Amino acid sequence: MHSALVLVSLALASATRPLVRIPLVNLDQLQFYGSIEIGSPPQSFRVIFDTGSSDVWVPSHDCTACSGVARYNRSASSTYADEMYRFQAYYGSGAVAGDVASDAIALPGASSASFVRMGSVTAQDATIQKFASEGIVGLGFPALASISAPTFLEALDIAIFSLYISPLPTSPVPSQLLLHGRQTELSSSFMPHIRQGFWAVRFGGLRVHDASLQRAATVAILDSGTSLLLLPHIEYASVVARLCTVVPALDGCDGGPVSCSSCDHTSFPPLTFVLGSTGFTLQGSDYVRCELNVCTPQIETSTNSFVVLGDIFFRAYYTAFDVTNRSVRLACPASGCHGGQRPPLLLSPFLSWVLYASMLYTKAFGLALSVVGAKWVLDRSLLMRTKQPSPALLSGIV
């Protein structure tokens, strides 16, 4: 059995809190959502658990054009409290807006509920309306929160959580989010979290095969709200140039989407991300998606100045987030962090329709980092010039 499966099965509860396992629906190997319950009596919602943000929101029953099916009916909840102000949250491909409320939130298998300030969304832009999930639960730090204070992690007193993404939607061990658990045998490196808002670690470089590529980024963000791998322009251009050298049949080398219609996963070289001082490798089967005889690297460029590691990376490496110690651990087989332990990213024909949805998912939630990232760069520039402490801004990256 793969070591990550063993780690999932051996997950231990903390000394003070029982372990909570939240199954995640694996829609197409790139979209994952689980369930939470809000209100008294409880109302169930499918949500994205997002390590790249810190707010909680679900659609209100007043929203006539929102994603998913379930709607939050505040009038039906005896524990609802109106916070008496509105909010708006911006993402890369749109925005959501609504009222701020407080209510009880419970998790599957939990014996009690906790009160969380959250958004009751009354309007969504068209792109976000297309998601299968109804809302979002942020698993980031307080500096990223604009409405949820205390954050979900603080309100539920979560000291550690971990994310396991199953190889395929039909895998016997399902994708799951584990709360209040600690992994005793994580076999790879300990990496301190280096930014207050995001789960961010030091980025030490990028390799294709054994060739080190040009880079400018020094930070990588672990973001479960992003489907793909997002690279700044310099890193993306370096990767594409190298792939075009190694994979002669690759199309798009002169610009445009990069894909190949006369190759398979084995045609693509290993791609290694150096996090801290450890290299974590993705084989072609980990980062290349093949469907209808077309293979496409699941990598996109972004305007961010940092690398974003999305669900493609989590699928290859089981990850534990230590909230108390502000650190991250990744699980590797005893043989090393070489990737290629999972079945290839393949889609059966009946699932091919969700490819478009996957791209929307990537852009709408993952590229929310573009807005925050730009603010990060501005804040750091001002800080260097003024030599004064930065104010508590939305990004919180100081």
Automatic annotation (TrEMBL):
Q: Please give the family membership noted in the entry.
A: Belongs to the peptidase A1 family.
Give the taxonomic lineage as stored in the record. Answer: Eukaryota, Sar, Stramenopiles, Oomycota, Saprolegniomycetes
Superkingdom of the source species? Eukaryota
Q: Which GO terms describe its molecular function?
A: aspartic-type endopeptidase activity
Taxonomic source organism = Saprolegnia diclina (strain VS20)
Read off the Gene3D superfamilies from this record.
Acid Proteases
Q: Which CDD domains does the record associate with it?
A: pepsin_like
What is this protein called in UniProt? Peptidase A1 domain-containing protein
Q: Does the keyword Transmembrane apply?
A: yes
User: What is annotated as the active site?
Assistant: 50, 223
Residue stretches making up the Peptidase A1 domain = 32-331
- Residue intervals passing through the bilayer: 353-378
Keywords annotated in UniProt: Aspartyl protease, Hydrolase, Membrane, Protease, Signal, Transmembrane, Transmembrane helix
Signal sequence interval, chain numbering: 1-15
Give one GO biological process term: proteolysis
